[in-house]
């Protein structure tokens, strides 16, 4: 059913157009205003030339969302309107009821599960903080150019592959502080004030 300000051949139609047959529109019809429908099914790609909003989903105070996938392996990308004090962003795996990623309005990020390979990097104007489980659980404090700040890394076995928690300097290739299960080792001078 098409209703309201519908025109055909430049002439405004005063009544709704209904029926079970097909209505052929031009190759590039233009629809203005709000399109209201129970569901919209497209057999091809839905594209937009809007470089400001792109695809804009609004739901007032309800959770606006976008679902990807069918009955299996379905993901939901959504704005959780009331969660976390309001306005948090979620990526949710529907079959497992798992909130895989949550971003709060404050910028705080929560991830479910673990990062099994590769590095997780959090960046900012002052540099980056990254963790890489493939390199003895090494965490790196980096400058804005991506290099370790004064060479500092820390983590389990960082610098020597041991089971101790190490503060390692990759510039001097030394471990000034090593914390093992029953001992603390300090290389150099320990100053306590």
The H-and-E topology, N to C, reads as: EEEEEEEEEEEEEE
Cα-atom Rg, whole angstroms?
28 Å
Q: Report how far apart the termini are.
A: 79 Å
- Report strand order across the widest sheet: 8-9-10-11-12-13-14
> Low-confidence stretches at least 5 residues in length (pLDDT < 50)?
none
Total of DSSP H or I helical runs spanning 4+ residues: 0
Major β-sheet profile: 7 strands, antiparallel
Structural class: mainly beta
Q: Which band does the percent of strand residues land in?
A: 35-45%
Total DSSP E strands: 14
Give the % helix.
Answer: under 10%
- The chain-level mean pLDDT equals 75
Q: Which geometry do the CA atoms define?
A: elongated
What can you tell me about this protein's structure?
It is a single chain. With 193 residues, the protein is mostly beta strands. The chain has strands at 6-8, 11-13, 64-68, 75-80, 88-93, 98-103, 109-111, 119-124, 127-132, 138-142, 148-156, 165-169, 174-179, 184-186. The strands form three sheets. Strands 8-9-10-11-12-13-14 form a seven-stranded antiparallel sheet, with no helix packed on it. The protein has a five-stranded antiparallel sheet with strand order 3-4-5-6-7, with no helix packed on it. Strand 8 (119-124) and strand 9 (127-132) form a beta hairpin. The model has no long low-confidence stretch (mean pLDDT 75).
Concise summary:
The chain is mainly beta. It has strands at 6-8, 11-13, 64-68, 75-80, 88-93, 98-103, 109-111, 119-124, 127-132, 138-142, 148-156, 165-169, 174-179, 184-186. It is built from no helices and 14 strands.
